[in-house]
## 1
Amino acid sequence: MILVTGGAGFIGANFVLDWLAQHDEPVINLDKLTYAGNLETLASLQGDARHMFVQGDIADSALVTGLLTEHRPRTIVHFAAESHVDRSIHGAEDFIQTNIVGTFRLLEAVRAHWSALPDAEKQAFRLLHVSTDEVYGSLAPDAPAFTETHGFEPNSPYSASKAASDHLVRAWHHTYGLPVVTTNCSNNYGPFHFPEKLIPLMIVNALAGKPLPVYGDGMQVRDWLYVKDHCSAIRRVLEAGSLGETYNVGGWNEKPNIEIVHTICALLDELRPRADGASYTTQITHVKDRPGHDRRYAIDARKLEAELGWKPAETFDTGIRKTVQWYLDHPDWVARVQSGAYRQWVQTQYGAPATA
Ligand code: NAD
Ligand code: TYD
């Protein structure tokens, strides 16, 4: 069995769904259910004995220790984090608490558990820490993409907190021998993405007839990866990654934000034309830029490809089409996430605290 943290969030939930579609190995899913955690994303696993959901905090050492002792997972995949840059700019406290203190407490609980395991289990044990390309900072327009040896230059409270967690994970390997691997991935997109991030926000706002808020000139570049490709990379690193190593994960899809927004508008013009016949591009509005906005991220994923043979399955064109279609097909998921009704659903379904 494996333990996933943050498995009710965007990437964690996609990972759990993909894992159980491919394996019968059970998953314990530990998630605090912050605003970003949504059990409705996992509704298809209702009644599936292979999925055990536990509502709780990674910083709750007693809870984590209890789960490790009771279930003896062979692997931990650590997604749980505060993940939205704009929220971190408005208030960094939760980011420090979960991303740094929470990761520290998780590492300590795991270290105590792992140290006491019999040799065979100890050898097989893995903790995979899921991180971001944002720890490397911002690239000049013509600079080469981030490799794993690029220095850490985080610029936002979010990326600084993730960089700190990466350092902790590295140190727990170096000092205590904890068997860890870290992945640093570029921007993800795909199904179940909370509509506060660029791609789902633009789709949802476009369909609601609202403005499409592009920060500044819209020429900031991000490197986009379809979420299921991130999940396959994590599975591959779990299978064959070298202990203590970091692996960059990316899809070689650098795009300026404004181009992303135009692509989404073009797909919606094709798939769900506006009643008045106008293009969704008429809803684009340039708004005040994000403070300290990183200009460019780009991932060099050659190590993962050369050493572990991983490649993304989707191009940006295929992935973004699937994503837009998914949002068109799931208006109820979007409505409930936005209205907060899914929280009532959690209470109704699981009571308080929500455990199933
Ligand atoms: P998300 O915000 O959608 O989900 C985070 C999940 O963690 C939520 O379900 C939330 O309830 C849970 N959580 C938060 N605090 C917790 C705590 N203290 N204890 C237990 N659970 C807690 O984030 P995401 O986009 O799915 O990102 C998952 C991971 O991947 C993060 O570590 C993030 O830094 C990393 N990452 C994200 C991207 C991206 O583009 N979204 C890219 C690279 C790396
Ligand atoms: P986001 O999805 O928040 O991811 P990150 O900041 O972690 O890369 O934003 C992606 C890019 O889109 C980033 O350059 C900020 C920009 N952006 C907008 O222009 N408008 C928006 O409303 C949002 C949410 C983001």
## 2
Amino acid sequence: MTDIATPTRTKEILKKYGFSFKKSLGQNFLIDLNILHKIVAAAELTLEKGVIEIGPGIGALTEQLSREAGKVVAIEIDQRLLPILADTLSVYPHTEVMHGDVLDMNLSALIEDKFNGKKVSVVANLPYYVTSAILMKLLEERLPLENIVVMIQKEVAERIAANPGSKAYGALTVLAQFYAEADIVTIVPRSVFIPQPNVDSAVLRLRIRQTPAVEVQSEEAFYRVVKASFAQRRKTLANNLLHNFFGKERREEMFNLLEEVGIDPTRRGETLSIAEFAALSNVITRQSK
Ligand code: SAM
């Protein structure tokens, strides 16, 4: 059988089942084998490892993953794709398709249930409309993952992999790099999908850290400080923290805390390293105890 991810075979499958794309579900299917091979290689799979795929579509990526990994669980929200996947993936008995919205799933229980202690990666060509929500769920739930390799919008990948001081550096960068080392595997033109999306894409790899990059007393306080610091990019750190975290009545306390950790209040959020955000959230946590 030829690979699913060629224009001819994909069109054949879509025609056979009379499938029409739903834009609202971010359905852009991959038709380029080179890109698929790069995605799979980036996940560093072996037959001893397992994979969770989010949004298998008609199985273009699932098929390639099934050839490299010992177990694949693919989660698809669109019920219309289930009979198609049962057909296209029928030769891979170690591949299982689950119907549901990944955002509603208990992935920690799923990993325990399905993977028998194997190392697990998440590999996906993510639907654009929920990229950040899915990534934050995978990271914040501290799932026992080895890595996450995802095709996402190029600008979002650049934001996540950015360095402090750069234009792309923001709350998503800090939160993602707190849990993982990020790198961009390759940039992907829109011509490798049907239908073609309106944006270019990139393959992002997140290698999950054994322990977070910096020590924080309270992850919740850390998130709140980071999000507040980037609330309005053009404002200074002090301005953002005052309006989005402390409130005017705690103005003096805020300046004292910034001084204590040696952070100039006139700096902007985008210039702070992850370690500086951690130091700041740690003195704030201590203060509020
Ligand atoms: N993996 C396929 C490929 O590369 O050709 C399809 C990728 S397509 C960009 C995204 C897929 O995610 C679609 O099949 C869509 O139905 C599915 N999807 C969208 N939202 C989802 C959600 N919340 N949970 C699970 N699957 C979702």
